[in-house]
Every structure is written in structure tokens, then in C-alpha cells.
Design a protein that fits this description.
Layout: H1 5-16, H2 20-39, E1 44-46, E2 50-57, E3 60-64, E4 69-73, E5 76-83, H3 85-101
Antiparallel strand pairs: 1-2, 2-5, 3-4
Helix pairs in contact: 1-2
Length: 102
Amino acid sequence: MSLTKKDIVAAITEKRYLSHINAGRVVEDLLEIIKSSLESGEDVMISGFGKFCVKKKASRKGRNPATDTTMTLPARRVVTFKCAGILREILNQDETKKQQQD
């Protein structure tokens, strides 16, 4: 199961005494800020969480497996995510605990 915007809004509403409407606005505004920063080529680093980076991919040769024709895929930009060390440690601690319980 994945965490949705609706789930995030509900959690903020519950924890921060904000109305559902205001919490929704906060989430939407935050996502718009992140999207516009990435669109302009800026990286977005959230301390203790991770870093979203915009990477440029060069054009390359590709193949359509259905028709077996070759084509050139255009250059593009992609967003990558690098997990913060603190978050990685927390995630790995959980795995270590699970393995110890087994």
C-alpha cells in the first residue's frame, strides 16, 4: 500500500490541529514549490529525508520490442532521489530488528 496525498493531509490534520482544508493547502503548496524548483533545474534537499536531483540523460539508441525497429530516444531530464544518511540508518535498523526476530 502506498501513502497518498489524502493520507498525508489526514495525518497533518490529526497531528497539527489544522483544518482539513488548510492541511490540504499546505501539502499542495509544498508540492508546487518542489515541482517548480525541479522544473527550473534546482535540486531539492530536505534535511533528514533526502535530496531530489534533476539529471540530464543524453539521447540514445533504443529498440521497439514489438516491431524490432531501432530508433533514437531523445535527450531528457529525470528526477532521482538520494536518501539521507539518517533516514537510511532508520530504515536499516528496522530491517536488522526484523532479522533478529526471525
